[in-house]
Design a protein that fits this description.
six-stranded antiparallel beta sheet, single chain, alpha+beta
């Protein structure tokens, strides 16, 4: 029997090496249990579950506290804006309200009315202007009218012929000017008339 330590040939029944004295008994190699495989599989499964749970909470924004519904958030944003809090929600709300207030619309800048016959001259400021006018005649004369004419050549009006129905008539026109314009309102034989100037601002 060859010694595993020094390689010396010994007798078959020798218990120790004659040369180096090492034991000649066969060494029992422990056999690994199959249970270790199951333990490793269980550990891998636990790790996967933990990673999945962390990923779920990270993506859904859960931090262990109750998350308010969108309606509640929006109401909080309105309340914060009113109370003057300087959080992100209130700033967003204020910016949105400012954008809404910046929206342009037709604003009334002058209204004129009267009756009978006559004329008036008025100054209208620059900008994008719209003129609305209407009148009701005394009778259906051929000369009943309401005319509005500007120094820029823009005009509009209503009139009635001898066979026209006695009824209210209306007209409108618009223009854009970089300077003030003078407008003349001329009316004849009217029960009532009305002229309104609007500016887009």
């Amino acid at each position: 029997m060859k010694c595993k330590q020094c390689g010396f040939e010994n007798k078959k029944d020798a218990k120790f090496c004659t040369k180096c004295g090492s034991s000649m008994e066969p060494v029992d190699v422990p056999v690994k249990s199959d249970n270790s495989k199951y333990i490793i599989i269980a550990l891998v499964a636990v790790i996967i579950l933990l990673v999945g749970a962390v990923g779920y909470f990270a993506l859904s924004g859960h931090d262990g506290s109750n998350v308010a519904s969108p309606q509640k958030n929006s109401s909080n944003a309105v309340q914060s804006a009113e109370s003057g809090d300087s959080n992100e929600n209130s700033q967003t709300q204020v910016v949105s309200s400012n954008k809404a207030s910046d929206a342009k619309s037709w604003e009334l800048i002058g209204s004129y009315s009267g009756s009978g016959s006559g004329s008036e001259t008025i100054n209208v400021p620059s900008g994008q202007i719209m003129v609305k006018l209407s009148a009701y005649p005394i009778k259906n004369y051929a000369t009943n009218h309401l005319y509005v004419s500007g120094s820029n050549g823009k005009s509009g009006g209503v009139d009635w012929g001898s066979t026209s129905a006695v009824e209210t008539r209306s007209d409108s026109f618009s223009y854009t000017s970089s300077s003030d314009e003078a407008f003349t309102i001329d009316y004849y034989e009217t029960v009532s008339w009305n002229v309104e100037f609007y500016r887009y601002q």
